[in-house]
Inverse folding.
């Protein structure tokens, strides 16, 4: 099989040499009857996966938009902005749901195990102006809902968010921002557009 593959590649290179017009040229003359031409080729692609290995596609949201955040008029009461997001196990192959799952983790783009682990959106003009938000793995947020970032992040991959076992499974979650944070600043100082990134990581894990 290996000899056949080598021969096939050699044949392909030979055909390229016969059909492709060179971008530069050398000349043979009676004074210089010999010369050489470099023959190059490119083989693209990847090794086909092991038919028995687990493969999957998890769809994550492209954008989650809090839209316009209203400046709080009374900080003695809760002022939350909630926005939902959805993850979906679009494709799962060869997974044994009795012993395996596709685990999904998430963290802020700048979060580290030994550093600041909060989720933030930051002012696009001044990154020093930023506001934190919490991540829930339920939607809507109810009395018994708990944000996943309530405890310290202990893994570099991030906070554990969910585990998928079957194709088609979804997770509907919520991002919650406490707008009372805004009152620590004058409104004129914080107007503008804000953004941040949630970084997702997935892995096949034994349960």
């Amino acid at each position: 099989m290996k000899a056949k593959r080598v021969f096939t590649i050699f044949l392909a290179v030979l055909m390229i040499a016969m059909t492709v017009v060179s971008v530069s040229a050398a000349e043979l003359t009676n004074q210089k009857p010999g010369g050489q031409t470099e023959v190059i080729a490119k083989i693209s692609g990847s090794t086909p996966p092991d038919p028995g290995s687990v493969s999957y596609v998890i769809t994550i949201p492209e954008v989650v938009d809090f839209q316009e955040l209203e400046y709080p008029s009374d900080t003695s009461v809760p002022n939350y902005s909630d926005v939902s997001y959805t993850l979906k196990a679009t494709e799962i192959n060869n997974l044994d749901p009795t012993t395996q799952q596709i685990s999904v983790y998430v963290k802020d783009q700048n979060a580290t195990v030994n550093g600041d682990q909060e989720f933030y959106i930051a002012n696009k003009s001044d990154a020093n102006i930023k506001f934190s938000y919490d991540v829930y793995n339920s939607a809507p947020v109810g009395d018994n809902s708990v944000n996943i970032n309530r405890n310290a992040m202990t893994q570099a991959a991030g906070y554990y968010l969910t585990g998928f076992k079957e194709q088609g499974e979804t997770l509907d979650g919520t991002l919650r921002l406490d707008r009372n944070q805004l009152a620590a600043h004058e409104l004129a100082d914080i107007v503008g557009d804000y953004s941040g990134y949630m970084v997702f990581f997935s892995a096949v894990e034994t349960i």
Remarks:
- The chain has one domain: 55-206.
- The CA atoms of residues 26 and 36 lie 8 Å apart.
- The chain has a mean pLDDT of 84.
